[in-house]
Every structure is written in C-alpha cells, then in structure tokens.
Design brief:
Substrate binds at residues 30, 33, 60. Pathway: Purine metabolism; IMP biosynthesis via de novo pathway; 5-amino-1-(5-phospho-D-ribosyl)imidazole-4-carboxylate from 5-amino-1-(5-phospho-D-ribosyl)imidazole (N5-CAIR route): step 2/2. GO terms for molecular function: 5-(carboxyamino)imidazole ribonucleotide mutase activity; phosphoribosylaminoimidazole carboxylase activity. The chain has 6 helices and 5 strands; from the N terminus they run αβαβαβαβαβα. By secondary structure, the chain is an alpha/beta fold. Strands 2-1-3-4-5 form a 5-stranded parallel β-sheet, sandwiched between helices. β3 (79-85), α4 (90-96) and β4 form a beta-alpha-beta unit. α2 (34-46) runs parallel beside α6 (140-151) and α3 (62-71) packs across α4 (90-96). The radius of gyration is 17 Å and the shape is globular.
Length: 153
C-alpha cells in the first residue's frame, strides 16, 4: 500500500519543475507609455530574464491592478516594474498589494510638470510600509538593471 500524497510532497515536486513563467512583470498606466517601457522588456530579454508587459491603470481599473499584484508571486513573478506619469499612482498601488519588490519608473508626457518631476515625486514619496524603489525619469533600462540585480542574474 502506498502512502497518501501530502500538499508538502506536491509543493516539493512543483519546486523542482522548470517553468517558463516570467520573473519580472512590467506594468504601465497607458498604452502611450509602451514605447518607453518596452525598453525595460528589451533589457531584461537581452539579459535572458523572462518578463511580461501589461497595461493597467491605477485610476481607471484599480481592481485589476490589485488582483495583478496580489497574484504576482503565485504566478512566478519575483519583481514588478511599474511605469507611470502625472500623479503616478500605479507603483504605489502595486506595492500596496504585494510583498514583491516594486520598481517605479516616473514617465513624462505632454501634460507632465517640470519634465516629469510630478511623477518622480509621486513615486518616491511612498508612505511607511509601502516601499517602491525609484529610478530616473523615463529610465526603464535602469529599472530592468535593478530588477536583474534583485534577482542576482
């Protein structure tokens, strides 16, 4: 007679499987942010780091953002890069719903104040307990490099 399989046994088996799940999630608030944020995906891909790109607005669809962040670890993500302009709420909302490292990329737009200063200050000034690493304005390549260092790849 064989022993019953426990959840611990199943978890141990799953840990040993090679999975092609992305390690880094790249999110942005608007499709118009794609040309800039794709640079993070390219940098990660060039480094051999699997990634995914999603467009989701912290203001227009906060429930989608919360669900994405809450399920990120379960789906295999280990770092999230969030690009946002203007009020730049996306990185903070993501960080509020996950324990994964979140890297904020402040973005400029035609409505941006002082070359992205509004977005930069919104991302860097997170309240205690909601940490968001922040890179330079329009610099998703540095966000990807930081994600690689976090992953130690």
């Amino acid at each position: 007679m064989t022993e019953p399989t426990t959840q611990t046994d199943v978890d141990a088996e799953l840990e040993g499987l090679e999975v092609d799940a992305p390690l880094v999630g790249i999110v942005m608030g608007s499709k118009s942010d794609m040309p800039v944020m794709e640079k993070a995906a390219k940098e990660l891909t060039d480094r051999g780091i699997r990634n995914e790109i999603r467009v989701m607005s912290a203001h227009r669809d906060p429930d989608m953002v919360a669900e994405y962040a809450k399920n990120a670890r379960m789906r295999g993500l280990r770092v999230i890069i969030a690009g946002a302009g203007l009020a730049a709420a996306l990185p903070g909302v993501v960080a509020a719903h996950t324990d994964l490292p979140v890297i904020g990329v402040p973005l400029t737009s035609s409505m941006t104040v002082a070359g992205g200063l509004d977005a930069l200050l919104s991302i860097v000034q997170m309240p205690p307990g909601v940490p968001v690493a922040t890179v330079g304005v329009d610099n998703p390549k540095n966000a990807a490099a930081l994600a690689a260092r976090i992953l130690s790849l």
